[in-house]
Amino acid sequence: MKTLVNKAAKHAFSLAMATVLSISAMSVSNTAFANEKVVDNAPEMATLRGTAPLNAEVTPPAMSKVENNDLKRQRDYPQQPPTIPHDISKYQLDKNFNKCMDCHSRKFADEAQAPAVSVTHYMNRDGDFLGEMSPRRYFCTQCHVHQLESEPLVENEFVDMEKIIRKAHERSK
Amino acid sequence: MNKIMNLLKMGWTILSKPAVHLSLGFLTISGFIAGVIFWGGFNTAMELTNTEEFCTSCHEMNDNVFMELQSTIHYSNRSGVRAICSDCHVPHNWTDKIARKMQASKEVWGKIFGTIDTREKFEAHRLRLAQNEWTRLKANDSLECRNCHEFDSMDFTRQSKRAAAQHSSALAAGEKTCIDCHKGIAHKLPNMDGVREGGSPH
Questions:
Q1: Contact A68 B188 (CB under 8 A)
Q2: Beta carbons of A92 and B191 less than 8 Å apart
Q3: pLDDT given for residue A26 in this prediction
């Protein structure tokens, strides 16, 4: 019985302390705001918002044009899905219809002169070839993306695999 | 039967008799004025059925095809020129327009009996409905497209490479017409299984 009372007293004390502490903390911060002495020491982060404070709206940059020159881009690594060198806005790509395959399917490669999708798009995950496009490869834009005519937002430090190999060779010499 | 024949005969005797009290001038002029009023009224009434308000006044059109149109370039674009339903779906030439309007009486039937009054029913019918329009546009060499998009005024140098290549070859030679490649330009395409190989899922 005695211990129980003791415990209750301890709880009450700690609660009181916590209240006092929090009130004093609040008053400190209140005075700080009042004097406008808050210094934002946060580093300037490169985010999509830029350095705009949380309560401000940034004017979004003008929308960039979609690259539409039909020129193949270099791939940065062998497995990279090739980028789309043309505008695909308003192309229907849903469970009813795939506009991309209107040109990129094997059947229409001759009349459309578009690269036909590789045979991997007809493979299921066990590596078996299907007669029709594999459902897991049906939605083109999961892997293939169009490009914008704009400057990159952040510097790209990607190093091509071949460069690394060449450097390794040079080092071993 | 006899009664009807008698009635018809009576009507004919009245119509075939020359007018006794009315002058030829009065009949001619009033006939002309009445003709203008009727003809104008008829065409005005028909034009009313060509407006967007009329087409989208029923929920079948408003909730399905009109919704889909609104995100396409034929509804919203940089220059603000836009097409309404009848620009593409009703021929502009008068005789063709009358023929299409007569066909459309079947659509009134469909409206009354609720052929496509739910989204599910519409989805079930839409391939057939779309095919009707594709057949019509294929047969008239995409006339309704060409009412605005004049081939002779196309500047291939202002088109993308792929567009210029197709327009200057297949379209110029008449092998293909607009609708062959531009299906689903103003509405979503239905399941195209069996219509266009390659483009449709299984």
A1: no
A2: no
A3: 44
Which pLDDT belongs to residue B36?
96
CB contact under 8 A, B72 and A90: yes
Find the closest chain A residue to B127 by CA distance: A96
Give the distance from residue A67's alpha carbon to the nearest chain B alpha carbon, in angstroms: 11
User: End-to-end CA distance of chain A, in Å?
Assistant: 82
Residue of chain A whose Cα is closest to the Cα of B175 = A111
CB-CB under 8 Å, A97 with B198: no
Give chain A's largest Cα–Cα span: 94
Interchain pair A92, B196: CB under 8 A: no
Nearest to B184 among A92, A107, A113 (CB): A92
List Cβ<8 Å contacts ≥24 apart for A67-73. A67/A146, A67/A147, A67/A148, A67/A149, A68/B160, A69/B161, A70/B160, A70/B161, A70/B162, A73/A147
Is A56 a residue whose pLDDT tops 50?
A: yes
CB contact under 8 A, B190 and A96: yes
- What was the pLDDT predicted at B157? 92
pLDDT given for residue B162 in this prediction: 85
Residue B29 is predicted with a pLDDT of 95
Name B162's Cβ contacts closer than 8 Å, sequence gap at least 6.
A70, A86, A114
Residues of chain B neighbouring A114 (CB-CB closer than 8 A): 162
Alpha-carbon distance B66 to B50, whole Å? Answer: 14
Could you tell me which of A42, A114, A124, A86 has the C-alpha nearest to residue B166?
A114
| B90 vs A53, more confident | B90
Cα gap A100→A67, rounded to integer Å: 16
- Is A15 a residue whose pLDDT tops 80? no
pLDDT at A152: 84
Distance from CA of A100 to the nearest CA of B (A): 7
Token pair 């110029």 is found at B172
Q: What is the CATH number of domain A63-173?
A: 1.10.1130.10
Q: What percent of chain B has pLDDT over 90?
A: 64
